[in-house]
Amino acid sequence: MSYVKITKRISLLLVLAAAVSGMCSCSCNDNKNPEESVETEFTVEYPDIEKYFQEKSSIKSVENAKDSNKSLAEKDAIKELASRGFTDYPVTSSFSISGEYYEPLEASETSDEIHPMYNTYYVNSSGELWSVFIVEDEVMASPVALVLQDDNPRQIVVSERDTILSYDNKDNRFYKTVPNEDALEVHYCDRIDSAQLDSLTLEVLSNG
């Protein structure tokens, strides 16, 4: 079995919609080719999240994750992502609803356990890897190739709404923000699904 392992230090993890201290890793197997897998590790320097959002965005709301009635159970997150065509990779979670961090665990189709966010991956028709994630009940996506380019200053996220929802596990809060243009490049669409990500190639994003 072959592995592609990528390590990158990210000081401000706005694009992945989570603030995590320590090391996060994920291993994804493409069901279409079980002999290949991608393992990605991020070393994150934990910033002052509230200060960062105050400087880099307009904060619309802050909510304690425990008070949310929108966060999805594992089985519902899997169903939602599958309805959008994201079925090739496992759906994982790294946080409990109380903010505890753990190594990514694969969600179960029968589990009622609720988490503040979920992550999976999608390889579009151009062979480009995307990270697809649910924060509370909002689906967003980010092109992994651009995030991992050391010489690329752009952080890009695709969203269905005019705000970005981020999760801070340190204080166990959801932040709804409108990012400054120099902090995050946001592409809006009506629905994030496999067809949409097939159309959003790196070339299209680079020209956009």
Concise account of the structure shown:
The chain has 208 residues and is of the alpha+beta class. It is built from five helices and 14 strands.
Features:
single chain, 208 residues, alpha+beta, 5-stranded mixed sheet, 5 helices, 16% helix, disordered N terminus
What does this structure look like?
This protein is an alpha+beta fold. The protein has one domain (2-207). It is 16% helix and 41% strand. It contains five helices and 14 strands. The chain has a five-stranded mixed sheet with strand order 8-9-10-11-14. Strand 12 (164-168) and strand 13 (173-179) form a beta hairpin. The chain is globular and about 40 Å long. The N and C termini lie far apart (37 Å). The relative contact order is 0.20. The model is unreliable at 1-32 (pLDDT under 50).
Briefly note the structural class of the backbone. alpha+beta
Give the low-pLDDT segments.
1-32
**Which of globular, elongated, flat, extended, rod-shaped describes the shape?**
globular
Question: SSE order in H/E notation?
Answer: EEEEHEHEEEEEHEEEEHH
Strand arrangement within the widest β-sheet reads 8-9-10-11-14
Largest beta-sheet details: 5 strands, mixed
